[in-house]
UniProtKB/TrEMBL annotation, chain A:
Classification of source organism: Eukaryota, Metamonada, Anaeramoebidae, Anaeramoeba
Reactions catalysed: O-phospho-L-threonyl-[protein] + H2O = L-threonyl-[protein] + phosphate
Protein family per UniProt: Belongs to the PPP phosphatase family.
Name of the protein in question: Serine/threonine-protein phosphatase
Domain Serine/threonine specific protein phosphatases: 109-114
A family per Pfam: Metallophos
From TrEMBL, chain B:
Protein name: Leucine carboxyl methyltransferase 1
Pfam families for this protein: LCM
Stated family: Belongs to the methyltransferase superfamily. LCMT family.
Enzyme Commission number, as recorded: 2.1.1.233
Single Gene Ontology MF annotation: methyltransferase activity
Top enzyme category: transferase
GO biological process, one term: methylation
Domain of life: Eukaryota
Primary role: Methylates the carboxyl group of the C-terminal leucine residue of protein phosphatase 2A catalytic subunits to form alpha-leucine ester residues.
Keyword Ligase: no
Record keywords: Methyltransferase, S-adenosyl-L-methionine, Transferase
SUPFAM superfamilies for the chain: S-adenosyl-L-methionine-dependent methyltransferases (SSF53335)
Family matches, as InterPro entries: LCMT1, Ppm1/Ppm2/Tcmp, SAM-dependent_MTases_sf
Organism: Anaeramoeba flamelloides
Amino acid sequence: MDLDWCLEKLTKNPPEVLPEQVVKGITEQLKEALIYESNVAMVESPVSVVGDLHGQYYDLVELFRVGGECPETNYLFLGNYVDRGFYSVETISLLVCLKLHYPRRITLLRGNHESKGVTQVYGFYSECLRKYGNANVWKYFTDMFNYLQLAALIDEKIFCVHGGLSPSISSINQIRVLDRFQEIPPEGALTDLVWSDPDAVEQETKPSPRGAGHIFGSQLVDKFLQDNKINHIIRSNQLCMDGHQVLFSGKLITIWSAPNFCYRCGNVASILEVFKANNSLTLKYNTYTAAPENERIIPSLETTKEIPDYFK
Amino acid sequence: MKNQSNKESVRGTGNSAALCKFSSVKKGYYADPFIQYFVKKKEPVEPIMNRGFYMRVHAMDRLISQFLNANTDSSEGVQIIQLGGGKDTTFWRMRLSGENEVVNKLVWYEIDFPRTIQEKLRIISRVPKLQEPIVGWPKKALKKTSKGIELHSPDYHLICGDLRDTENLHKSLQEHGVNFEIPTLFISECVLVYVEPNLADKLLSYITETFKLPFLVMYEPTNPLDNFGKQMMTNLSKMGCPLLAIEQYNSIESQIKRFKKIGFNYVDVKNMKLLWDTLGKWEPENVDGQKERNRVIRLEWFDELEEWNMIMSHYFVLWAAKNDQISQEKFIKIFGL
């Protein structure tokens, strides 16, 4: 597998999608590498944490420009690489190739959109069909999604996950023994990790209005931090107009990395640098706006729908 | 720099609305056996659009019901004049539910661009189910005019017109038997916002000056000033359907002032986000509101919560009436909120 060739194609402007057989090859290779990895990735600082990308390829390019290219900068991605944006295929292809090429420099966690069911509703499936003429590439990627790790620990002090906490999980060891090699189920611990959201006000853990996962409050956060001897939770899943949001006096951070989300929301994006300064872990936000108009190409879509859409 | 308003793009918003309504119906949000006939390329849209259009139709339906129920005592009946309704199916839905029978008589008018009216008539002529409630179809109902074929049956009129041309609009309404004395509801569902504000106001003034008992329901976007609003302005401008009236009337407060200045004595406005948050509380008494809310939430995954709150807070429904004889209490509150 010539990864340099793949990366060259994917970093052109506009990017070129990889041939179907090559996608089959890289996803098989990544599955083989991930099968031996724990559900919880152990990551060392310095590392930059990245939230939802949602197929916004040009903004990923912008992110690398702002945060530093991989492999010179270490990255931890919190999932949701696909759906909603126009370039889910190019985005996930690029990240898979980077992961294969620099396995110790980049960690890819699973988000709630790394799912066969969700990608059929929110755009990745249609995009694969449009770009490849069949659903094979969608199947290769979504089979590979079942192998992505669920959480990460930075320097054993910062817990990172896509969604949030679960009422059925009090210890990180419980996450380690889950069977992650499956489609995200409708409910349960695995589901909660990728679908849940914190609530600044709510104390009780309740079912989430998203239709999966839970809403959790400061009580569960405090207990989780205490029982697992960690200091912070970093997660994504929720759009933040300012690119990030801090809750519970800094104990929980939401990071969002898709600027002007869906070309509609007018938000900025952030990545979070975690590094040691004077022997203590320091957090620094890097905030950026969408890639300039003249540096992106909006594809014409053979669809009746106008993107972005409003109640016209 | 704003892009020019492109008539075809503005007309096209009607097709976009029809597609979203079809998708919402197909997903089970609400019932409309007629919308399928008005959509060519049937594709599902995102959950946020399904739910958004459900709320739009639900809110407008409630306001139309409110108008009918407030005027059951009108001996000569009522009129509904839909401005730029596009491929809307409320005429048929109402006859299916029998709601038109709460008043003594209901005459329904639609005014839209000639091309839209021709398209609508072409579809009706292919679908017997759509023809059924149209008295005199086709020979006595279809009429050739200088603007195109129009429909003129005793209780359903499709008129070719341009909302920017109030003089000719008045002539058409007069010619086709509009009664300026009886309660008349004007519906503007995401329409007037695409018109230059002075021309939109001219039409609204025409309504209060010419009709004795006018009512109006309007659904529109608002608040172009925050980041989401600014992006909305840019995007819609690029699509050729800029929101021409929104900068002059950029808030709910300014819309209320506008309608009062034009001559409507009762004006009330509700933000769509508020209506969603209170869904279940403004159902008619015989409907279990909480059950309805739970039903809607369970229809599909909804991963766009933050976006949903944002987009819904940029739309409102407005209810206006000019009526000196009816008490303020009867009109000032809509949705019981």
